[in-house]
Specification:
alpha+beta; single chain; 2 helices; 131 residues; 24% helix
Length: 131
Amino acid sequence: MSLPIHHMIASGPRPVAPFSHAVEADGWVFVTGQMPTDPQAPDAPLPEGIEAQTRRVMENLKLLLGGIGLGLENVTFARIYLTAFERDFAAMNEIYKGFFEAGKLPGRTTIGVTALAVGALVEIDLIARRP
């Protein structure tokens, strides 16, 4: 087993805590949970509503994956955290599924939580695999 590679993507979102954007080991890539912050304006208010926040989180994840030569087609598993599970689950799913090819969705767990960093409604982390 090789040593892990710690990735920080220069154009990626500003971290809200001490972490790498992604860590890679033996072809597996673990992408840190992303918030709905704008990488171009990290201090701007978060987008309003679960749909806009889910879109921003997914765009941030695509940006990070792209920074290491991967895409959403390489994702094997996702974890989603929602602060208002019952209210936001269906709407988040509608946005989320549009980012993947039909019939090629990664495995997934969705978890209701009491709070997320920066007051976000949603956070998503990923596991991807290099071809």
